[in-house]
Amino acid sequence: MPLSREAIVEGLQRIVEPGDVVTDEQILVESSVDNFRKLQNIFNVHTMPVPAAVVMARSTEKVVELLRFADEHGVNVIPRTGATATEGGLESAVADSVIIDGSAMNEIVSIDAYNMQATCQCGVPLQVLEDRVRELGLTTGHSPQSKPVAHMGGLVATRSIGQFSTLYGGIEDMVVGLEAVFPGGQVTRIKNVPRRAAGPDIRHVVIGNEGALCFITEVTVKLFPYFPENNTFLGWTLKDMATGFAVLRDVMVNGYKPSVARVYDPGDAGLHFSHFAAEDDCVLLFMAEGAAGIAKATAEGIQAIVDKHPECTQVPSEYIETWFNDLCWDASKITAEDERIRQTRNVNRTTEISADWSSINDIYQAARARIIAEIPDITMMGGHSSHSYINGTNMYFNYFFNVVDVGPEEETSKYYLPIIGIICEETLKRGGSIVHHHGMGKARAPWVKDEYGSSYYVLETLKHAFDPNGIMNKGTIIPL
Amino acid sequence: MRFTVVMDGTSAGAADGTPAGAGEGTADRTADGPSGGIHRRAAALGAFLRDGLKSDSAGASRGAIDAQLAGDTLVFYSDERAKDRLVALAPTRDVRLVRIEARRPERMAALLSARAEGGQTDLFLFAGGPAGTELATRLACRSGGQALSEVLSAETAPDRLSCRRSIYSGHLTGRFELSARPWCVAVDPSWADAGGSETVAHTIVSAIDETGGGGPDPFEDRERMEAPSSEDLAGSSFVVVAGSGAGDRQGVRRIAAAAREMGATFGVTRPVAMNAWAPMDRLIGVSGARTAPALCIVAGASGAPAFFWGIERASLIVAVNTDEHAPIVGEADLVLLDDAVAVLEELAAIVAAEREKR
Amino acid sequence: MRILAYFKVTPDYEALRESEWSAAAGRVPSSGGGEGTSRGPSADGGAGPGRGEHAGPADGVDTRYVRRILDCFDESALEIALRLSDALVGRGRAAGLGALSIGAPGAEPHLKTLLALGFERAARVHTEAALDFAPAATAALIAAYAGRIDRSDLLVLGARSSPGGGGTVPFRVAEQLGWPCLTQVTEVEPLADGRLRVTLMGDDGLQRLTARTPCVLAVGNAVVSHLRVPTLTDRLAVRDRQPDVLEPADLGVDLADVLRREGPSLAALEGIDRHREGVLIAGDTPRAKAQALFDARLKSLLEEL
After folding, report:
1. Which terminus of chain A has a lower count of CB atoms within 10 Å, N or C?
2. Could you tell me if C103 lies within 8 Å of chain A, comparing CB atoms?
3. B237 lies in which domain range?
4. Which value does ipTM take for this structure?
């Protein structure tokens, strides 16, 4: 017999201070969605089940008690920290869920500049950690667009990636150890070592679990020396994406590690670079960083590679540097964007996938063409590649549409999900991955079996083993 | 250098056809209220004459122009009953009265232009705000002179007038030079906070009745929706400003409630107003009010130049912000690194408790 | 009703770093802010596309490398003009809607967007000179286009521009056309008889009044602040239409002569010192910090106030 909302709230109040159980109706309805259904918050029209409470966890011990309580009574739990998720991972799929909010666990436990690692609680905003280590001449190397607002726990839970990934890697390359709490209240600490071969790398059970297996309470990440004075920017315009992908491949295959390596299609370039790129121009850009010799050699190597492609026209590096300096989304930019949507009902959405070099351009072309042909009211359909590897790259589809003839709450069903469907189909058809760095959330969970194929066995077994009662973030990664 | 201060004591006219500011019912709110529009506009002109206008015409000895004697004040008015009150506000000894039916910018520009033709006036000074800017601009267009609005300070030289005003949305100050006369200058409205001029014994030099010469009003069915906005902000000695760090509409409301509890005037930054989290008339900054309070608490605003322009004359600025790298931290006297809503509510509780005690 | 909306494309000043502004302080712009300020980007990285609309650093603020946006009050004005046109059409009245911009080709993509949004006419008056601080020249070109070429009877534009901000252009245009002008307009609605019900935030507060055309409406802090976005289908429908490009001479304006007489001239840029001490009030909780602030300064200060 499931607990009533009142009983859930009473139970929570016995575990934490009464003030840490939030039951304010407006906060609860706003917490029923994340950015996947952000129009529900922007227009204040809510259709999702309303959570029973948002509970502030202030220590690992409290998380243990809360998860034990939830597990015992079959209460669905949604772990969150910075609440910047974009794929429905924080959405309450079932009634009377409890959101365990770790944003108050915001202590930087240690910064070890000799062993080049920093340990912090899950609620530390990445920006805060980055600012602190910068004072020591160091960087985390992690810089997603959400840096000003996202917290460390959530970044690890969603396998985040930053704008400098081509040099520093994704969050999975940065996390050396962590602490997490599993549904029965089991606390797991994975120690911080340079490498190990003592069996499977169990960090990856936790990294990217999206709150569907455990609650991350603490993480330790690598630190790197920071040489902003050596940052070198390079940019070109060119006429087609195939050339852009080919140049990116050349750079990667030749072993260069720029921190930023991107190619934008004309539509996406028009949003950022219309002051120097023509309407039908793609834009190719790089940033080289690191110690002086490395940054110089990287920039020169890239220059030599692009010089072999006469169809690329170089632009002054100041254009790229100026763009770079205004890249992250802080609270005021998000606020302004919400208001733009409210007034124009023109919505910007993104979907990111990855594939090998042979397939990426085909996926880009096919998905783009189908979306334009099949989905109504599209105002821009474009994208860019922003994270490259030796064997392939990602495609970050960036698109806008007007919400016409339906209420804001129907935006996902009329436009967003059908577009995601096309992108997933075209990606899966060519052997790519349907999620590059936002996480599966609930938005792309319907495609999970196609994504995993026969390896779904491992995922399903993990879920059953660690969350036998199915209380962890129902509908996330694995659909209801 | 001879100047003429232009005081617009007319009104655009209210819904019932009587010019506002003249009728008994509306007098308190406009022409006669202690913080009413005409008082503030007159105060701005007086303060600018006293402190904003410098001369180097007397060779090496720079100094304030003898404001009361070197110029005159031209008062446009519509209602006989308001006339004496308007004359009392004039910042110069000599006063010229011109009566017209109601505020008609084109008609007033024509009358001023005729006066400019005589060439006795080098500088026409207008109060800031849209109406003053319109008159200054229209007069310059008609008389072959040059106009500048929202002027912070001016310095005369024999051949030119050098003025400063804010440009690039508060990022920089520009020094402008006016050459062709008459110089038509609308002073920055914030001069109203610099204290009014001394009481002057006035001489009515001339009084002309120009009623009946204006033609029909191009605009009809005037209806006043709200009392003058944001004047409470400009004149306030204690201002609390909410920025987008308030988080949402609810956060803004809570800061507004805390401000009310403390007896402060409430304002917001442009992003907050544009989000419709607060009415547009609460806007502080380049496109809104320019305040000069003794105390300004900035709650969750980053301190962008276009906003800071609106509070830079505050005697004490207290910033409450979670971001220690926000520009406002270096632009404030005192800084509290914390959640703006939480701190403001605590502060309001402390102030309320203190009030109870006394 | 023949509506003309004027807009300006400006650098995104908020994307400029503080160091750019401090570098600009102390610089002396070229005379009048008018001629001689156009220069392509430096070619250090190769062939820049040299669009010729950029003010070089020696002349003032170096905005060459930031993106271009619709000036904010003009964006409001464009959407308000569109809504007015929609409302007129909804009442069975024809509303010929036109758009005008002045300057280098930077405005071209915006003009095409406006065509896709249903503007019937889109024109750019080509000038190489930067007119940021040349309100008389700007107004001369707008008035000449509205009066002689477009024969519009309603002009809608932003009340002030980001760089200059003086708010005199609408009145200057009104003077040249002999039209009445309302500024700080926040809403416009058509009445059944063809007149317009206008809401504005004037010196006397929020008012509403009725205007006949022709007139100039300058848009201030309106709640409507974003321009709608055309779909790809809308764009396709006007793919072959190009905005008209006119030279000042086509309007009968001798721009060089107008600029020579332009005034006031911008003589110098000065920085603004916003620095204050920033003394940190410490405490463990919001309550403790608030109490520390109250004890340190607010108690005595509030007693005085």
Report:
1. N
2. no
3. 231-357
4. 0.89
